[in-house]
UniProtKB/TrEMBL annotation:
Signal peptide: none annotated. Keywords: Magnesium, Prenyltransferase, Repeat, Transferase. It comes from Plasmodium vivax (malaria parasite P. vivax). GO terms for cellular component: CAAX-protein geranylgeranyltransferase complex; protein farnesyltransferase complex. It comes from the Eukaryota. Belongs to the protein prenyltransferase subunit alpha family. Its cofactor is Mg(2+). Residues 192-202 have a biased composition (Low complexity). This is Protein farnesyltransferase/geranylgeranyltransferase type-1 subunit alpha. GO terms for molecular function: CAAX-protein geranylgeranyltransferase activity; protein farnesyltransferase activity. The keyword Magnesium applies. Its EC number is 2.5.1.58, 2.5.1.59. Residues 180-220 are annotated as: Disordered.
Amino acid sequence: MDMTHLERERQKLSVDMQNERNVNNKEKVHILSTYYTDNEQLVYSSLASFIESKKYSFEGYVMSTFAIKVNPSYYSAWMYRRKCLRKLNLNLLNELRFTKCVICDNIKSFQSWFHRRWLVEYICKLARGGTLRGEQAESANRGKRVGSCSLGAAHSSGENSSGGPQIAWDSYDLEDEGNFISSDGSDGSDGSGSSSISGSRGSRARRASPGLPAEERPLEEDAFLSNCEEADFDAEKADVAILHEDLQNLVESCEFFKNALRPNGEPVNIDEFLYEEMLYSNCDIFLDAKNYNSWAHKTWLIDKLGIFKNKYLCEQYNIISHEFNFINYFLKHDIYNNSVWVYRYFILTKLKYTRKLRKMEREIKFCLNYAKQFPHNEAIFKYLFRVIFLYTHLYKKKKKNVADIFEIPLLLNLKEELAKLTDQSKYVLIFLSELYSFNGQRAQEVQCYRHLQKNDNFNDAVWRYRIEEAQMKQPCDAKSM
């Protein structure tokens, strides 16, 4: 390496450091410019102005609809929309239909699934018996509502004609994620019977600043990120006038926006509502059996809304048997679908079958049958090992505290059956090595790894490391014995 080369590198480093200083001195760096059509830019800039000014009006709700149709992953648009729903008391069931349309076009959009989850839980909480407040407080709240345009006025007239009590919006904390998506599963009650969704929540979760109104809390200042500059809000007055006129005509001619103005007074049978939501999640899984959001929504319904504790659903629709039939159908359709095995394990734990010895024994036999038919299926062996782990601890606790797990007849038979398949699949060898490791049999574990090292050339370094690791543990085990 000569001095000329070193000097060239020094100059290059100097230029890079100068560029870094220039970048640090700038407030904003435009890394990538995104092209928008004139209509898209108008929609985004208009919605951003509503977001920045915290103006929750029906006009802003309409603009968020268009913004979400253009970009279903626009998080701030969804969050603003939730605030409009609550502040303006817009129709929640109509909003469910909107999320169905968005999800149908963009099934992997997390924001739309989260919004639907929020809606389902919110409807359930309102229907399950909040307290209604008096007319005087409602009149005061109606005067505080944001939105003075003609669209907002149309909504106000719709509210006045409802004739029923309204939701006490001012008594709610507007931090949606913290308060309206359960984290402890405390709402998993039966919730049988019919109710109306025109009530309010009886209790609130936590408040960031109890002494301040929701709109004035410091936490709310950074709730939205519009990523817009001041210049982006300077739309032409003529364009804004045309936009307002077009929105007015659109609302008058669109059934969806008309339905959004309907009061939340229609009766809802919460049990049938939850069952329909389960069927909806099933339909989405049929569309894409490996979509994470569909399975997550289904598990959330069961876990947080007490589907299996609901006496009406269990008796009327035999919901537990239905779920096992649902799982078995997808296993027969695609045995390699790991999402189905994960969901099956969730159902087992939710029903507390992991605490019942006979149930676990049946599950091991069920998995062994599939493992013998599909020895190349890694998902089966991952699931089976976890089931065996739980079964072993349960067996030691309830029957006999054995030192060697192969003293249990079922596990001995399983080992002998799978040992016949070691030449067919590496996943059988990996499973047996994990089983031997769990049982403390280091020599047999090393033997499995040697077979893998010999036949699995792509991962030979991994198996060599596993052999060394097992051999290091072997003398320690001998000393402890």
